[in-house]
Amino acid sequence: MNGLKPQPRSREFEGTVKAAQDAEAWLAAEARALGIGADAEFAINLCLEELFLNAVQHGRANRASISIRTAPDCVQVEFVDDGAPYDPTLAPVRRIESRTEDFNIGGYGTGLMKEFSRRMTYWRDAGHNRLVLEFDGNAGR
After folding, report:
1. How far apart are CA 46 and CA 116, in angstroms?
2. Residue-range definition of the domain harbouring residue 87
3. Which of 64, 65, 84, 104 is most buried by its number of CB atoms within 10 A?
């Protein structure tokens, strides 16, 4: 993508629930350092939490890495894990169709990611899931 900074900010994490919390804190700090607006930061953190916890709890990932980079009109976050193959871009979107007291929790995260991101791109490479999420770049707002 034109205008992207050549070196994204990246960090690797263990595949644990505690590491997912650490990843959220790290990404929030990086978003602030990059001047990403509050709306984009919220969307990024919501999607990251969904991705990380699903990779650990369902995909049995041992490691995950996160990269973030900005461009004039967008923010890209790449999430890579070594868990079981899973392409969230193909997952059906579940909608809440009844009162919230009556529905089962689970299966709504992919819909949230599709709603909060501008684009999702997935591929499997060398035993790793790779997902790039693109968000509206409301830097400085």
Report:
1. 8
2. 9-136
3. 64
